[in-house]
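Q: I have two molecules that I believe assemble together. Could you output structure tokens for the complex as a whole instead of separate predictions?
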Amino acid sequence: MNIILFDEPFESATLPAGSEEAKHIRKVLRAQVGTKVFIGFVNGLRARAVVKSLSDAGDVELEVIGTEAAPKPLPISLLIGLPRPHTAKRLLFDAASMGVRALHFFESERSEPSYAQSSLWSTNEWRERVRLGVEQSFGTYHPEVAMHSDLQSAISALFGAGINIALDNYESAGALGEVLPESATSAVIALGSERGWAPNERDVFRKNGWKLAHLGPHVLRSETAAVAAVAATAARLGLCKEQTVTEL
Amino acid sequence: MNIILFDEPFESATLPAGSEEAKHIRKVLRAQVGTKVFIGFVNGLRARAVVKSLSDAGDVELEVIGTEAAPKPLPISLLIGLPRPHTAKRLLFDAASMGVRALHFFESERSEPSYAQSSLWSTNEWRERVRLGVEQSFGTYHPEVAMHSDLQSAISALFGAGINIALDNYESAGALGEVLPESATSAVIALGSERGWAPNERDVFRKNGWKLAHLGPHVLRSETAAVAAVAATAARLGLCKEQTVTEL
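A: Yes, here they are, computed for all two components at once.
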């Protein structure tokens, strides 16, 4: 992890010896008194902190010495036909690390019903994957994650969130870069589960004013397609121009 | 796999029962006599073939019933500071599936020397990863893969291959989309190993006329950054406009 996230902001805090954060600072960062570390407050500021003391028991006392804005989320949301848990784990991590604003999953006609029963979703594991992705990115903002029972409910929940485009390897009005107007300021990109959209789902998209687009002639895995779609959308809309370079 | 690749073209062939291809056709595709399958010839045509016979022993006789051009490689090459083998495996697969033209690895100053000793490189495992990526993509073209001893050798080998841009989270002339001229027709994108470039490597890039660019404020894993960089480059250069839709 590139940054240690805390749920609540503080100016100084003592992390109990047994906490993951204290262990990370002692064992991975091998911090001494005076070592500076990057921390962040969930959905808030990024901060530099200094190790003020290390108790014999292993408690770590941190003091914030400076704060700065964390990278803002991209105005891009993903709508995803529920994939197999292994794929969903990667998607959650990668989308969070790219700064996607929201991830909306739904049980598509070609999803396996068992996917929704995975412990990924019934435990906190999905949250953990998102958090790890945010920590990778050096950010603090967590994407919203939502689960919908069907495509129409998901589309209704996303109404007004941006230009709506569904990726489709078989039927499309053109390449993503052609279908996505350069003037758009936000986008929602839909990806099917690994076996793609059912004809009925294409109808739902079209009835709701979505456009179908492709990513080129190469057929990508869902997780690769998601990263490629976010990057292509960000490039097309001229997002990602800012970069905060920060040093400890 | 979406397509079964063969090293040499044929019009008809009998696949021995014990071959991976025969097993895949029998067990995964559960083919019967008359079943159509997608096949491809490495760096050549894609084809539809029909199962003409299945012997009791398990041999599979295929006959080509139609051929078509496979998706062309993208005019994008990657130059990559040798990453840990786990990351390299994903990179090989993903880059091959996206249709990257070439992958040039080199031991960067911040690569671990042990990475080059991995069985990934000393056995055929790296080739297998590339092939799986190509099969995923429904393509036949295999990217060139090269290993260089240092950055200058790699840069020299890539001379003339396109606009040269090195991704850098710390020092950059701007976003990839700003640094990359829209009029370029091909590009080489360099990515550091997980700990980034050494100052000396930045000097080598600059002396050789490379520009440094960033992918935005979010810090991505190498494998995610590679996919994002290829997608953003393809979007910026207006590649990926063609899509061959094909049905069995």
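A: One point stands out. Chain B has two domains: 4-68, 74-236.
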